[in-house]
Amino acid sequence: MIRLFLHELRAQQLLFWRSREAAFFTFLLPIVFLLLLGSVYGDEEIDGINGSTYLLAGLLGYGVVATAFAGLAISLVLRRESGVLKRVRGTPLPTPVYLGAVIASTLVVIAANAVAQLLVARFVLDSRWPAALGGLALALLLGALVFAALGIALTGAIRSAEGSSALVNAIYLPLTFISGVFFSVETLPGFLQAIADVSPLTYLLDLIRSLVLEGGGSTEDVLVLAAWGLAGLVIALRVFRWEPREA
User: How many Cβ atoms sit within 10 Å of the Cβ of residue 162?
Assistant: First the structure.
């Protein structure tokens, strides 16, 4: 079973890196944003935090959402509607192994993106090194699992391959701005702050920033993220489909 999982994980990695669009928008784009915005605002303070450090934490969270939520949801819908998922169920490959490899591949991409961002921030933008690397790794893992569950849950609401990108982007792109990836939530109007207060990305960013700056995170942030992840998992188990919805 382990050999089968590793073989499928390798296949999923090859599929990801061979897709130029996926590799750019989910892996490279957060690094580009960090370089560009860090070069412009890196010496300023955002919400009382050094600009490059603030942006590093924000874009680490952005990388998680772009890969585990947006990228995963879109790719699963495309595979579902093209009949790939249906054919997978007809092979000897166990479905838990397939989905596990898909999610594990997503985690590998997030880990690689996080390492690249940390190196760019430290050696190009002269940002501070995170105070708790181990805790940061665990926070990114938690965030990845939470948003993967939410991404899989979202596939149940997407009826067509053509509409997948539009719906996913309409959700996650505004969320990145509202939750404080690029600037302080305190500068937002009240109704947007109310949305930020319940956004799972807000809690992930707060957890990441605490670990980067102080070496410790809030239990509340962890619990809220876990609650979102559990809700996403419950919905995903109920609505995820292997057969095309357009058929």
Answer: 12
